[in-house]
Design goal:
about 900 residues; mainly alpha; two-stranded antiparallel sheet; single chain; two-stranded antiparallel ribbon
Amino acid sequence: MLNSPPKVRVQLSEALAIISGHDFPFKWPTLLPQLLEKLTTTDEATLNGVLNTADSIYLRYRGEYMTATLSNELEYSQKLVIPLLNTLKAATARLPTVSAAPLQLAALLENVRLIASIFLSLNSPGLTQDFEDTLDDWMDNLHKYLMIETPPALVESDPDKEGVVEAVKGAICEALGLFMEKNEEEFAKYLQTFVEAVWKQVVGAQSNVGYDRFVMAAIGFLTAVARSVHFALFGDAAALRQICEGIIIPNIRMREDLEEAFEMNWLEYIRRDTEGSDNDTRRRAASELVKALTDKFPSEVTTLFTGYVSDMLGQYTTAPAAQWKAKDCAMYLVTALAVKGKTVAAGATSTNALVNIPDFYNKHVAPDLAPESAGKVHQVLVADALKFVTTFRAQLPQQSLHAVFPGCVEALKCESNVVHSYAAVCVERLLALKVNNIQVFTPDTLGPYLQPLLERLFSAFHFPESKENEYLMRCVMRVISFVGNAIAPVAPVCIQQLSQQLLEVCKNPTQPGFNHYLFESVAALIKYGCAVDPSAVVTYEEMLFPPFQIVLQEDVQEFHPYVFQIFAQLIESRSSVNGIVVQLPETYYTILPPLLTPLFWERPGNIPALVRLVEAYLTVSAPEIVKSGHLQAVLGVFQKLLSSKAHGHEAFYILNALVTHVDLASLTQYLPHIWGLLFQKLQSARTTRYVRSLLVFLGVFIAKHGCEATSASIDAVQPGLLTMLVQQVWVPSCQTVQGKYEEKIIAVGGAKILADYNALPSDVWCSLLFATVTALESISSSGGGGAPTTIMGNGSATAMNGGAGGTEEGDDFEFSGYSAAYAKLHNASRVEQDPIPDVQQDIKLYLAQCLASAGKKMPGRVPGLIGGANAYVQGKVREYAAAAGVSLV
């Protein structure tokens, strides 16, 4: 490998690194000795191969935390420390002799870079004793290379390509940054020397892209020093001025490559500029240095930088067309100076009190967004202004935000992809903004802008390269969700637009975020449009069925979960407010049989959406499903899901829907098999989540069909099994069930068992009474149940499993990407309904009434059983009876 050509050597080295990741060091004990043996060579090419190999092996130590295994590996690898240092010293000794030979010098410096990289990797988990003992020699040699000047012969002709000297300095600065972060005490005695050296080198660095890695690493080191206890090194006024003039402003100023990205690679520009992906840019590095210095010297730094900002704004005022970059730099610097903390949801959450943000906004930002300025301000500055409003939206007066909103809407007309994308982001964030938990904008205030806003958003999709603009589509979704029912009059037009876009993206789905927000927008239009006019669902179906059919026919797998959720939403929308079901079109029954085949259920991302869709069919059209012979297929899906470890809880969604909406006569023949499967899993794979799900289902069954039918169906599996379930499962676990509707089901089910199931032994009856009373009191003390959860389906806040599911999506509709995972549509969530609507009174009163009714049927039995309970339970039951106005005697 060491004799291979450089490009082949790199590939072999990477392969070796992959193998060593599994086998090195203890399964490959000969590797390190072989490397050490080759380190003694004076041939630069051979040495390069050895060092490349070692560098690839040890890169995996970066970012690792110290563990016993890693400690053993590091201890073993300390054999490399002295030979590696000797190799560095030998290179330093050869440096004067090869300085006049460019090729030899470049080879030597490349090897020094690799040594510095290995040095960084081996020290990343922590400073070892061997390195600490030799740290003087390491730092002395690294300092010499940090101070080396680039010979003219090694200056890269391509300004975008990193030179070998800059690569060495960058690797050294990265190592220095590590020591400041992890080994500040041991590094302290070298600090002054290296701060001066790095400072000098970064001030003299060119603005070429090839210098970026070195400059960013150097600024990162200086930032680490500024944040440490040694920040006083920068406290001198002259030092701060030099940092500002020589380091910060030159590296914040917009370069040609960034300007070119604004025009030619807008998506990358936005990601770097607004989404925090610019950690590897000079601008972000310089910005972090500003923040670090401001934290330590707030008054001095703010005063100094304010002066520079004023100068740059003055340059812009004298010649706006020629000096727009000066204002761009000023605005970036103000943001770096002012923001102390921020979040995606609120923008800047804490700011530098010495920076008057509203004043700066009024003087220098708002004018760039005024309608009369349209077309007169450089597009970069319009983008800067929009970003400023977005960043400081929580810090600006509400009247300013209301005043700037028309300008943000107007900016959507700008053909620049960056500008209209920033405008969409700004509008979307402003609509989501809350102050003291109160919306800054309301549907009423948005009303006059609604039509032009939607028109400009949909028109912006026609700009070049914005056909699948995620920022625009997210804004569309936000506007629809924000105005709610007020969107109904224009909902058909919007759905028509989105349907056409869906037809296009079906051909080649490439933008997951755009696609998600597209479907979320469709779901929102259906949600609010049907809330105002339920009959509008027919119009929506006519527009959406053609693209949906293409998704299914052409097997566009990425869209299946979305389409299934919206199908479910459309089906449920056919139930009017008073619950009268409109007959489903034949199309729905045509697609049902294929959806019940195993093909769709083999894809994990489809399962929650398909379950949601099956629930919708059962909720709206259960008799038709039974009549058409699909019940067995639905039960087959239930059985398949129940056997799955990952999706077993989904089986109960279908089961609850079956019990709730299918008449008992149609289910009777299948119930012994259903119970058998449930009890088999209870024995073989019992989990807390499964027990909660089973209890809720059992409670639903009892509440819907009574104890007699429940007992008959369960005892068909094994006589006396219901008694055993109550004693061994219900009583010990019923109090673990959480959720508004789940707790009601358990309470009602417990009351019915106590009142109607006469086969319970007295000790089990008393235990059940105690568990039911305790659960009722727990509900009362917690305010009437936990967070609302999905009892009859999986489309709401959490999964129905006795409260064992996740939490509701926030208002921000965040999307993290789709693949095999399920991407839930917030706007298509099922509106949950009380599964036991006939029980409206307080469950405590309901329990007392049930017990009183049972006492009348069998005089003396219920009072006797209650008398066997403890005093606490007896007191509570008497309290419930008194409140209900019934007698238990």
